[in-house]
Amino acid sequence: MSRCVEEPLEKMRATGASCVLRGSGLLPRVNLNKECPFWEDDSKCAIRYCSVKPCTDVPEGIKGAPIDRSEKKQKEKSHMVPGHCDGENDLGYLNTTLSKESKVGFKRWAAHDDAQLNFCKIDDESSEDSEYVDLLLNPERYTGYAGPSAHRIWRTIYQENCFKPSRAIGRYTDFSSIGANDFLKEMCLEKRTFYRAISGLHTSINIHLSANYLLSDQNGFEVSKDGQWGPNVQEFQARFDPELTGGEGPLRLKNLYFVYLLELRALAKAAPYLESLEYYTGNESEDNDVSKAVKDLLTVVKSFPEHFDESSMFSGGQQAAKLKEEFRQHFWNVSRIMDCVGCDKCRLWGKLQVTGLGTALKILFSGNLDQPGNQNLDLPAARHAKFQLSRIEIVALINAFGRLSSSIMALENFRQSITKR
Q: Has residue 121 been placed in a domain?
């Protein structure tokens, strides 16, 4: 399995596509000021490593709508025509503006349509509370955010939003520990997929925190004023060693590979759609670099063997449609729980990766957007079904897949460190 994973990663680095995975040219915009919708948030992290530094220098092309270059050229060309007169256009002028009421109505309709397809709650980019964030300046790592507040996040996700077996299972202090027994076998494929996707995401985040842990000296004081981060083998073993986790650790790591293949499949399926987009920042040189990097990445993704088959899921009439809607609603709730994370930096990365996974689920399960037997999104069918991805979703999808890739690389480093002991 590791060989299958490392090969495309090596190709990505060789082609330069890793710049996209690191967030270059794809700045996320996120609202870190939303109130928790489920409980009163009284546990805001006061540790300085929890804070997020927003971008102050954002390219105009990212802040505004992309300019239609063909329309711009057409206007320039029309002014070069002999005898051209602005008055001629005035005679046939058509007022295409919308009233304030109409704009509000269209926005409400669009939100309703999006909600029928989306698997997660997407931040409103037009909100005054939304800020652009440079992920390179705000890396995902251990910040010291722990204790009851952090545990409540995952406990709520597992206990109240993951599907449960039909028979009573009792009250688990950590619902993420059901993987070692037979409970998962009692659930259908779709419900097992949901649990394994959540568990794989949880595993990936835990590996990130173990690989970028806040190190300290023997007296418990930080090594430097700004802190020093590095791999913590003991922390990794506490989360994944079979003997220290009751046999759960290897299953959690197995779910990491599962969610990696799920998102890999989503990228491959959406490749024609993603390749048809214009990646616009306002800087033509950077636009070309980002566009080339995305296409190089998708070329590698499409060459990777298929390991996740979504066609076997949600088939079977009305009951299957009902189950898919439950699936979507459960994940929608998970995305809302991310607004309850008390650490801003943890909230940033949690929202980004959950949105990325939700986007992958949207690609895989949003209706019959592809023809039977076709392994990619059929563009005409997608347009007919009004399928589209927002800039936030595309940024999240690519960066979330990058985090899973980094987790697998870090996992190999931990294996080597443990073997050498």
A: yes
Structural domain of residue 300, as residue ranges? Answer: 2-64+103-141+252-420
Name the pairing type of β-strands 229-230 and 213-214.
antiparallel
Q: State whether residue 54 is helix, strand or coil.
A: strand
Annotated binding site: which residue ranges?
Answer: 141, 143, 154, 199, 202, 239
Alpha-carbon dihedral 39, 41, 42, 47, rounded to 10 degrees: 150
Question: pLDDT tens digits, residue range 315-366?
Answer: 878 899 899 999 999 999 999 999 999 888 999 999 999 999 999 999 999 8
Is 4 among the catalytic positions? no
> Residues forming the annotated binding site for FAD?
141, 143, 154, 199, 202, 239
Whether 336 maps to a domain, the answer reads yes
Number of domains in the chain: 1
* Separation of alpha carbons 275 and 272, rounded Å: 5
Structure tokens at 236: 């990794």
Active-site residue flag, 346: yes
Exactly one of 50, 120, 340, 343 is catalytic; name it: 343
Alpha-carbon span 353 to 88, nearest angstrom: 53
Would you tell me how many other CB atoms lie within 10 Å of the CB of residue 390? 15
Q: Is residue 25 part of a domain?
A: yes
Which residues lie closer than 8 Å to 21 by C-beta, 6 or more apart? 12, 297, 398, 399, 401, 402, 405, 406
Exposure b/e, 326-358, CB count within 10 A at least 16 = b:
ebbebbbbbbbbbbbbbbbbbbbbbbbbbbbbb
Using an 8 Å Cβ cutoff, are 213 and 142 in contact? yes
pTM of the predicted model as reported, rounded to 2 decimal places: 0.78
